[in-house]
Amino acid sequence: MKKGAIIGLAVGGTAIVALGAVYFVGRNFYKDHFLAGTTINGIDCSNMTVDMAKEEIQFELDNYKLVVSERGDLEDTLKGKDMDFLYTDGGEVDQLMENQSHNMWIFKLMGNKSYEFEHAFTYSEDKMVDLVDAFQCFKPENVVQPEDAKPVLENGEFVVKPEVEGSLIYTLDVENAIKDVIMNNVPAYDLDEAGLYIQPQVRKDNPELLAKVDQMNAMTKADITYDFVEKQYHVDREEMAGWVSTAEDGSIIVDREKVADWVRNMAYETDTFGLEKDFTTSYGRTITLAGGGDYGYCIDQEATTDQLINFIIEAQTVVTEPVYLYTGLDRTGNTIGKSYVEICISTQTLWLYWDGQLITSTPIITGCDEKGYSTPSGSCWAIDGKKMDWNFTTFPNAWSTWWMPFNDQVGLHDASWQDPSYYEIPGFYISNGSHGCVNIPDAPMEQIFNYMEIGYPVVVYYSEDQVVGPAPTEDLVAG
Predict the structure, then answer these.
(1) Dihedral sign, CA of 367, 373, 378, 383?
(2) Averaged over 168-187, what is the pLDDT?
(3) What are phi and psi of 449, to 5 degrees?
């Protein structure tokens, strides 16, 4: 054999021996070490023993970080060590080692060998919850309530105010989401992208909202004026805007309570029924009549509220009056008007005025003071009725041709039983007067009956110095 061949065989043999030695060394090494390229739950465990791999897994758990992004450029970070992340050894790593073909290690040097275990660790849920509850997104100063898009009035017209996204989010929703995230070893999580924030229910392009705005603009085209001669109350779109709202069923309604409040205020400022009134007597002196009479204007608030709501719904432009329970003759500062009956008890005189002109004046006989039948005085009453040929059932054979009650049983009437001379006796009424009524001679009584109508005012005062006279002590009766 040639010398070169011998040397070649020697080298080849040496190489085989060397390769065999490397194989056996590797075989023995990978008997208790993971093959190169081995990852467990995303952790590179190449060439590690089981214990080393477990330590690395725990190390990675300790250093786990979850960055949570929130609205408003806010951000919070959760750390594994703060939540007591702990690797749970269920024998999976050991089993991987046992299943590893260390005899074939040399053929598996290339390629990745990735393994995932579910629930390979535990953590303190209580600590996680405490950390999540401390997120910046839950601090009061960072919480903005979401708002639905809604109609608003701008420059005299309803328009859509866009929704407010807000930043309201529930802690329980975030806690539950974070549980899933950390179990999947996710490094970052965006609460907004996850859809956890409470969303507005109505957005600016909502077809129903747009239709409502159109309807509200149509309803508030009304222009309503209540005319009180010397004062007007105007209802325009600006006023009505606060009255139009959405019902629970989504329909557009006029808020009755708000309209009623407006009507109530108008009535408070304009009603004159039963209130004090200034009055200039036939003697030329201005006196103040006390409240308590039944003459004047009184708005029917319920009916006027209905009226106003109908005007709005029908989008009417109207100048009108409210609906009244009681009316007078004059809406100016006088309120009594220019047509009335005036009675002064102390002088036993009655005046009849029509449209500011004196029609007649006459002596009268009023209620008997000494017997407690004093005619009520000091206020203004309205004529309640008109009857001819009236029989007074409380007094046999007593009747009047003209009867006009104005204060319950007290009224104006002729009195055939009164001798005409009695009207001329000063102070006759004090001891010989009526049972409360105003007795009037036939001719002026007929004039009063012909001129005055139901609702016309009767002013009664005791004297200019003493507007309110003696109060009756007995029950007054007609006659």
Answers:
(1) negative
(2) 91
(3) -65, -40
Q: Number of helices and strands (H, E) in the chain?
A: 11, 28
Measured in degrees and rounded to the nearest 5, phi and psi for residue 362 equal: -155, 150
Whether the per-residue pLDDT at 166 is higher than 60: the answer is: yes
Tokens of 425: 């006796």
Q: Is the pLDDT of residue 445 over 80?
A: yes
Distances (CA, A) of 288 to 281, 331, 338: 10, 18, 17
Contact, 208 vs 302, CB < 8 A?
Answer: no
- Which residues 6+ apart lie within 8 Å of 324 measured at CB? 297, 298, 299, 300
How far is residue 123 from each of residues 51, 79, 195, 257, measured CA to CA in Å? 21, 11, 26, 58
For the chain, the 3-state helix, strand and coil shares in percent, each to the nearest 5, are: 30, 25, 45
Joined together, the tokens standing for residue 32 give 């208790």
φ, ψ (nearest 5 deg) of residue 340: -165, 170
* Closest by CA position to 192, among listed 165, 158, 162: 165
Residue 137, token pair as written in the block: 């997104």
The continuous run of DSSP H or E covering 414 comes out as strand 410-414
Segments in 150-300 forming alpha helices (H): 171-183, 207-219, 237-241, 256-270
**Cα Rg, the chain, nearest whole Å:** 51
Q: Note every long-range contact of 213-219, with CB atoms under 8 Å and residues 24 or more positions apart, other chains counting.
A: 213/151, 213/158, 213/159, 213/160, 215/252, 216/151, 216/158, 216/244, 216/252, 217/157, 217/158, 218/315, 219/244, 219/252, 219/254, 219/312, 219/313, 219/315
Is beta strand 43-44 parallel, antiparallel or unpaired with respect to 65-70? unpaired
Three-point CA angle 47, 50, 52, nearest 5°: 70
What dihedral do alpha carbons 153, 159, 161, 162 form, nearest 10°?
A: 180
Q: What is the pTM of this model?
A: 0.63
CA 358 to chain centre: 56
- Higher-confidence position of 204 and 93: 204
DSSP states of 139-161 as a string? SGGG----B--EEEEETTEEEEE
What's the Cα-to-Cα distance from 96 to each of 38, 41, 51, rounded to whole Å?
Answer: 10, 13, 12
How many angstroms from the chain centroid is the CA of residue 272? 32
Taking 90 as the threshold, does the pLDDT of residue 371 lie above it? Answer: yes
Name the token pair of 323. Answer: 């609906």
Q: How far apart are CA 456 and CA 383, in angstroms?
A: 6
